[in-house]
Every structure is written in structure tokens, then in C-alpha cells.
Prior knowledge:
Blueprint lengths: L12 H10 L10 H4 L13 E5 L2 H10 L10 E8 L6 E9 L4 E6 H4 L2 H4 L8 H6 L5 E3 L3 H11 L6 E3 H7 L11 H8 L4 H18 L17 H12 L1 H9 L4 H18 L23 E3 L2 E3 L1
Parallel strand pairs: 1-4, 2-5, 5-6
Antiparallel strand pairs: 2-3, 3-4, 7-8
Helix pairs in contact: 1-13, 7-13, 10-11
Amino acid sequence: IDDTLLTSGDPYKGLLASAKVMSATPINNTLAISELIDPIQRTNLNDEVSSHFIDSSDSVMDLVDSMAKLPTEPPSLYLDLEGVFLSRHGTISILQVFIPPKNCVYLLDVHSLHEKAFFTAGTDGQTLKAILESNVIPKVFFDVRNDSDALYAHFGIRLAGIQDIQLMELATRSFSRRCVNGLSRCIERDAVMTPSEKGIWASVKEKGLKLFAPEHGGCYEVFNARPLAEDIRAYCIQDVQFMPRLLAGYSSKITQPWALKVDEATKERVALSQSETFNGKGSHMALGPWPVSNSVRRGRGRYLH
């Protein structure tokens, strides 16, 4: 990612500055996405990405300390949550944090630690809650809505400084923006992978789904089993491992007007998730935030909004 994409202030400020240079035109598409990814973010599935399971107050302290003074250009924190009916009505089991500069994924055992996961201070007095609520520390999620809902409902965490990759994908499309895509579809379509990586990704995904997805014969409670099953651990790691690639690809294509819309829509998603009426389940979750124009241009079966 171009190092002008982010600054230590507003996490979208640098992205908007980069888009301003581009005006309404994306950068040269002849550049390979791999050339746009900072070397620290070129995580290869064939390489060993280290992982740590955080299940004690001491290890939470170490995690918080490891987040200190990380680069913000590009972002260094890529996060996801797993749980049983993840929402205000369910529970949080695991918080995954991928830190590319350390080439490490941290799996935080929220199920066992409860409040200690977010309120245990590091050596400088910082807590994970403070990091998640900081507007000057960029955090990258894919569809932040249910994650934000659960964090706010169960631990009073008001997320800030968020970049939502799902919205960035929607904004950079050349076809209909009516419905959002899921993470798997984005990875399959937009994450540059070697044939070997694609095979590993598909295998890890399939094994994980069989264990936790009810429609595949699994059960969400598997995220609360300790020790964590190796196939679930691998699934959790892989969920965040591709995020830097996706962010790099979408950042290279986004224009200033759409960067502004993504910034606004992301903040609206977080605010909505904290409202009393928010419902994170249902077909409405598949709809994008931007209304379809009355003047819809049709061509070759595609709708451009």
C-alpha cells in the first residue's frame, strides 16, 4: 500500500489524500496487486505464520505491549471475532488479531478471560479496550457490524478508527453495488493466490466449516472447546491472514468520492450496531449502504449504480 494511505490521525485521512491525487480515476491497473503490498504484509500460506493463544492476564499484557508503537501506514492490526451467535444476544469466544509486522496471529480467549481480555493493562497502562476505541490507531475489519454489536453489548467497547474491507470492495466495483459480498467470495475473487495457496485456503475453510457451521453438520460451541481444535485454530488464523492483501487491492483502486462514502458508511455501521434497534441477522444485512439510483444503466446483464 502507498504509504500516503493512512496517517496517525483519522485512519481514513491518508486514504482520502491518496484518493484525492487520483481524483475520480484509479491508479494504473497494470500494476500487480502484489507490487502494492508492503513487504511486511506479503504473508504466504506456504510460510509459517506464528500464532499465540492468549488465555491469561500475563499473556494479555504481552499482547497489549506488542501493539505499542506499530506502524499505521499501512495498518498493522487486522481483526475478526468468532462466537456462539455472535451478537448482543450471543457470546464472544475468540478475538483474532493479525499483526503483519510481527507475522503473527494472536487468538484471544475471550470465552475464558471475559473482562480481563479487554481491561488488563500493559506495562504503559494501555488496555486492549483503549486500543479498540482509539481513533488514531487504525483497525481493519471485514463487516464490522456484528463484531461491534457484540463488543459494545458485552464489554461497553465503542469501536473507533475502523476500516471495513467489505465496504471498500463494494466501493471499488464496476458492477452492481446493491449487495455486499462475504469474506470468502472476496478472497476467492480478489486475493492474489498461487495454486498452492488456493488449495490450502480451500482445505482449511472446508475443515473449519464442518466443525462449526450448523448447515455443514457443525456447532458454534466448538469455538468454546479447550484446547481449541487444530482445524478451528487454522480457520481462525486464515480468516485474518488475507485481510492485508484485500486492503491493498481495494485501496489501489478506490477514488476520492468513494473513499469519502466508505469512511462515512463505516462510521454509520458502528453507530447503528450500538443502537437499541440493531438486528445483525437477516437478509437486510446483505444490502449495501448506498441507495440504488433511479437512473440505472443496464448493459450486458449488469447493473451499474
